[in-house]
Amino acid sequence: MISLIVTAYEDPKSTKECIRRLLNQKDFHEKFELIASCPDEPTKKIIINYKKKYPRIIKYIRQEYGSGKNRLINKILKVVKGDILIWTDGNKFMEEDAIKLILKPFEDSKVGIVGGRPTATNNRETILGYWAHLLTNASDKIREMRSNQGLLVEQCANILAFRKGLIKEIPLDVAEDAIISYIISEKGYKNIYVKEAKVLVMYPRNFKDWVKQKVRSIKSHEALNKYVNKKNIKMKSFTNEVFYGIYLSLSYPKNLKEFYWTLLLYPARLYIWLKAFYEIKINKNIYNPDWSRSESTKILDYNKK
Questions:
Q1: How far apart (Å, rounded) are the C-alpha atoms in residues 24 and 20?
Q2: 3-class DSSP state for residue 64?
Q3: Alpha carbon of residue 237 to chain centroid
């Protein structure tokens, strides 16, 4: 049995489309349950409507405001019935063959965790849209390189699958996808990246949200230092960004405008790293595990205000 898990947060329209896509996957014939969670009433209404239509498949789990995503994951881990758990968010859209592709490696009993490829849906003709495409492409290449080198691959929570029972609980103060990848790999299970299994993601569409998201991501990964002390184990770090970033980014632009936007990305990335370290080291403002989603990352529920 398979457990499909959707963690949503104030995005009813996107969650409706997310679940629709999961229920209409191509060549997916496994017995499954679909667990969906949210804290807000509009999104809950969408989930309950699906539950009424598919009472034997859909399950709703209440999420409390301020509880944090990691705490929610721990709550869900206690009630899932599937042998394989496939996770995504309510504002992410799986492509029609994603589940079939991400399940395939689990035919090998030594495989413990599998991740797919986030694909930016942003408009490439804007600077932030272009940055989204560039950075997701770079992440894809880095995951491939690290996999080929036998290093830990930090899978992405947007499309993440692992075997039930390998993790009972995760820490609350660290990036969930990174710590899950680390724990399962440390137990000796294979960590597989399937780039063909794609999930559509909207990245921030204004600079304020972009900074907020990137600084939060850096802080959550820096918190890994409390749990990870092996050399070359971390995928996201300032050193790795400098080492891989220049090569991967300069080979990506297709024209002069995109090359110029690529050059602008360097000071922007330096700014968010400096801001993150200032907040961590000077202000002692460490990673806050409470759920904090940038408004402009919602695909169908974006309120520009």
A1: 6
A2: coil
A3: 17
Query: Is residue 199 scored above 60 in pLDDT?
Result: yes
Return d(Cα 299, Cα 90) in angstroms, integer.
10
Structure tokens at 230: 């092996």
What lies within 8 Å, CB to CB, of 150 at 6+ separation is: none
Q: Which residues pair with 296 in a beta bridge?
A: none
User: SS3 for 197?
Assistant: strand
Lowest mean pLDDT among 69-78, 147-156, 270-279, 282-291: 282-291
User: Residue 175: enclosing H or E segment and its boundaries?
Assistant: none
Which of 67-76, 115-124, 127-136, 296-305 shows the lowest mean pLDDT across its residues? 296-305
- Residue 90 has which token pair? 């309510």
* Measured CA angle at 125 (ends 123, 128), to 5 deg: 70
pTM score of the predicted model: 0.89
Strands (E) across 134-231 are located at 160-163, 190-201
How far is CA 184 from its chain centroid?
A: 17
Checking if the pLDDT of 234 tops 70, the result is no
Q: How confident is the model at residue 279 (pLDDT cuts 50, 70, 90)?
A: confident
CA dist., res. 299 & res. 305, Å (int)? 15
Tokens of residue 117, six digits: 């490829």
Asked if 94 contacts 100 with a C-beta cutoff of 8 angstroms, the reply is: no
Q: Tell me the Cα Rg of the chain.
A: 19
CA-nearest of 217, 202, 220, 100 to 161 is 100
